[in-house]
Amino acid sequence: MNDVRELSSLAAEVQREYAAQMNPTYVMDARMKAIQEFENAPIPQFGKSKLDKRNLDAYSIACKQPSSQDWQVIAKPYMDDNENAAMIVIADGHVVHSAGLDNLQEQGVLALNLRQAAVTYPELVQEHLGSVVPFDENKLLALHAALWRDGLFFYLPAHAEVGTPIQILVVTTKGAQGTFSRNLIVAERGAKATILEVDLADPMIGDEVHVGVSEVIVKDDAHIKMGIVHDFPKGSTNLLVHRAQVHHSAQMDWIIGDMAEGFTIAEYASILVGEGSRSTSHAVALGSGRSHLNLTSKMQHVARFSESETFARGVMKDRADAVFCGFTHILRGASGANGEQNERLLMLSPKSRADAIPMLLIDENDVKCGHAASVGQINEEQLFYLMSRGITEQDAKKMIVWGFVDPVLAKLPVDLVREAVVRALERKMS
Fold first, then answer.
1. Which of 15, 63, 81, 383 holds its CA 20 to 30 A away from the CA of 252?
2. At 271, phi and psi to the nearest 5?
3. Which pTM value belongs to this model?
């Protein structure tokens, strides 16, 4: 493996590109192992979401840092002008802007880009990187583990509380580069924080492979809230895996807004390994054009008296199609566990399609578990009532849609981002 000529083409390119950058030995070793898995693994299958016809070669190994004008025009609507706001912007794999992160060091909180953290804090990074989302799970995650460029490393010591949300903006300015972002978040006992990630791209990028991974470790009595907004254009092939390991009496909350117009497979998951652990997932998605969305909210109950709640709202228009899957797995030994699901999908066009698939896998007797799912079009009685009050049909439909998705939008943790999401939804529903 030391001779580049003995490596595969991909491995040789990765070694050349990353050897000159900040990559300690353990990171490079992990990249090489991931490449071997990538080359041997088949293309993964995700039920009705077929990747066989997608352009999975729309990525490159090396990416140049974009100009400030290129990334700012995309990111500006989501950026907080408050100079005290903690934020990191990663454009085309490069950290192009950061603010407010140094202020957190007074509490012992570490907030910096993951590439730098791998060098500066190797013990912490090596212990947790890949512990929740392993590289050998499927071919695209192996590719991501080999090529990840940067992301946020966020470490909260015991009982640290960060009052303002930490924002991560991942921006792609050119197509066929590949967006491989990775976040690693570790909260020690009793720590609390809110993180918001926004994934954005130029609407004209064309074909693009976007694989995003977040690993969250929530130790005893800690509480992490993570919001994720995804707005990639048509032509993109997106695989998102955001997964948490939740310990004794800890809590993990997911808030998701997905407005991507391409082909998206996303998993938001919590593994409840500690007694009394809890997780919630609130998701809203808008499908437009010919977009495809496969969204899975996965709750795995390992420990006793663990609780989970899944709440999803989807709106499909034009020729968009979606699969919403709520998956609750209660393992043997997780007595006293409680898992609830609620998925509701709304279709605005006769050519749109949506499937709600609630799944319960229960291997223990003393548990509570339930689900509710519905798929339908706008209620004609509601529409008639609003129009009878002088409201146009188009405005009446918008009012019904906003009432449908508002319970999730209200939970987005940053006002500026919530407003930007509302504007984007308005634009796509017009």
1. 81
2. -105, 110
3. 0.94
